Every structure is written in C-alpha cells, then in structure tokens.
Amino acid sequence: MKVLMFGWEFPPHISGGLGTACYGLVKGMAHHNQELIFVVPKLWGDEDPLAEFVNASDVEIDYRERRFRQIWKNLTYLEVSSFLIPYLDPEEYRKYTQRLKEDNEGLDESVLSNKFSFSGKYGKDLIMEVSRYALVAGQIAKNKDHDLIHAHDWLSFPAGIAAKSISGKPLIAHVHATEFDRSGQTVNQQVFDIEKAGMEAADKIIAVSQLTKNTIVQKYGIPESKVVVVHNAVLDTSIIKSKEEKKVPEKIVTFLGRITFQKGPEYFVEAASKVLGKDENVRFVMAGSGDLLNRMVQRVAELRIGTKFHFTGFLKGDDVDKMFALSDVYVMPSVSEPFGISPLEAVRHNTPVIISKQSGVAEVLQNAVKIDFWDIDAMADAIFALLHYEGISRMFKEMGREELKRLKWEHVAERVIKIYKETIKK
Predict the structure, then answer these.
(1) What ranges in 126-239 are assigned the alpha helix state H?
(2) What is the pTM of this model?
(3) Domain presence at residue 399
(4) What pLDDT is attached to residue 111?
(5) Cα separation of 417 and 325, whole Å?
(6) pLDDT for 200 beyond 50
(7) Is residue 388 one of the residues assigned to a domain?
(8) How far apart are CA 339 and CA 360, in angstroms?
C-alpha cells in the first residue's frame, strides 16, 4: 500500500505543532515500513529522509488537460500573489502582511504557468497559495502511483480533493485544528468552506481528539460515523536530563505558544498577578508571538508585575528545550486546543503541567492538573501548590514519566495504517 500525503511544512522548517505532528506520524509510519510519498510546497534539502519527498515547487503542470482546467474552475479564486503563514488565522495574516514592505521578489507567474514557486516569503493573499498547491497536487496524483491520499488540515484539503479527482483514490482528511479553534465563534467563512469541502470529500476523517470530533460533527454537519479519533503523541518518550542552570533564584512558571485568542494568554497573565500577590519569589515567562502580544505587555504593565514577567518572543529548537528545562511549572490555558503537544514535551523535561480541560491532550494525559481556562483562581491555586508543595510536584513528575511510555508515534501510526486498510476495502 502506497500513501500520497499532503502537508504544508516539515521539520526543521516549521511554524507550529502541525509540522511536528506530521514529522511524528511520518516517523511512526517509517517504523512500520509504510510506503509514503510526502508532498510539501517547498523542500529545503535538510529534511529527515523518512519518506519519498516531493517538492511541489518542482512540479510542472500540464494544465491543457481538461481535468486540470476543471480543478482550477472548481477552485474559483482570483489570481493574486500570496504569502502563507500556516499558524496565523486570516485576520492575523492580513495585519501581519500590512506591516511587510512590498518586495519585487514576489510571485508573478501566471496562474496557469507550467511551474509555481512556493516561496512562502512575499505576497498578499493567503488563499492563493492553497489554490496553486491544489493544482500541483492534481499533477502529482497523475504522476505518482498511490493507493490512498492523506491531507493534513485545511491548507492541504484542496490539494487532497484535487488529487482524488484525478486518481479516484480514497481521501483521508486529518483535522489538527478547525477554524472554530483559531477564531472562536467569529469564523472566516472562506476557511470554513474549505474545511467543510475537505471533510465532505473525504472518505474518512481523522480527528486529533474527541473535542475536535465533536466540533466536526456539530459545526460542520459531518456524520459521526465518518470521524475517528486518533490522539497525537510525543516524538521521544525518554526523559531529558538537562544541564541548564537558572540564573535567577526565583521559581519559573512558563507559557509557551502562540499569543492568540486560542491559547488563552490573558488568563495566564491574570493568574500570574494573583500568584505574585501571595509570593513575589516567582518569575513568569510568556514565550511566543501573536496578535495579542502588545495587549499582554500592556496588561502586565497595568498590573504592575513587569519586573516579574518576561516576554521572550518566538522560540524554536534548542531554545524551547532550554525553556522547558528551566521551568518549575508549565501552563497551557488554551481556550480551545484540538490537542496540544507542548505539555507532553514539558513532561519529558520533568516539568509538572497545568492544562485546560478544553484541550485534547487532557483526554490522554491523566497526570496533570486540569482547570477550566477561564478559572484564573483555580489556575493560580494550582501554580502556587506545585511551586510550594514538593510532594505534589514530585508525584506529577514521577507519574507523568510513566504515562509518556504509552504515548508513542509508532502506536499512532499503527492505528492510522489500520484506518487506511479499512478505507481501501470499502
């Protein structure tokens, strides 16, 4: 069985959890010797060779074929150069690109040129790259022999639909997050429509949590029987023994993620103020970037906790590991988190975690303190307890270590391969 998989990013060039999840799944697939063709808009040459990679920027399109013209007709998007940032919702994206200076290196090919360059650097429209990727996907599906198609999130759903229309092979839509997670109830209709079209076209849908499945069924009107829950995992279940040493005497409490509505940073700030009202020997760190960053800086100033609150900006790679290693408590107060891999990474660093009940990871991580994201009193109490009662902190560390052993990507891949086989048989 050969699987044609469409993603948007792959480590080490990632913007968030989607790339990490794709890497984990591909690595798990390799463990089971699953034959895989992984397509990304742009290859950088330093990806881990776990699969046959296809660089969409190198694919020539024979758009004279009627089937390809039909794909383009169905996309119905205007030709505009594009700049895609996978983890910004459309409103954040517009604000971000307004700050960019025009650059003459933008994409200027005709929409029906033989080859597209997915630079990911300059342009104006988020949707256009998704559309072009879909057109390229049809050509790849024609050129590459495969038995099944697997598309990750809305960025790749049009590609999955196009590939299915060319090859006729079954499509798996893998939902890592929905527009309701990114934007709350004020969804971008265009993104919602793309998500819904992908889910309707799919033969089977994989949701990363029961929370996500409920959203798919209730908000998108998808039959419950079409959706199967497969939780994410952690890349390495071994405990990391870091040699990093704190340069400050205080305990450190960390928030690490996008500073957006979805991640609940404002609740973390309010809880920090309450903790500091009881104990000044604590430092709070907010690591990340996003559209709420300036508002959080302002709120920290209003609460007069600036000397105990630090903003690091976006962290990646070794810097993330260092931050986890230096932390005494990790908090993920997400308003809506389809899964959330970062708490598992924190456990690997022997750091006790506090997570919102509104997160998918709460379904699999039992040894964590779970609170409602809006309950800042409960969050503050949990932080205080983990910092001051060593027995509680040690218990969560020890039990968390044991729990990690069953959260392996090899197990996830095994479940996904079973879904492949069941879908092909139908």
Answers:
(1) 126-143, 153-167, 179-183, 189-201, 210-220
(2) 0.82
(3) yes
(4) 42
(5) 35
(6) yes
(7) yes
(8) 4
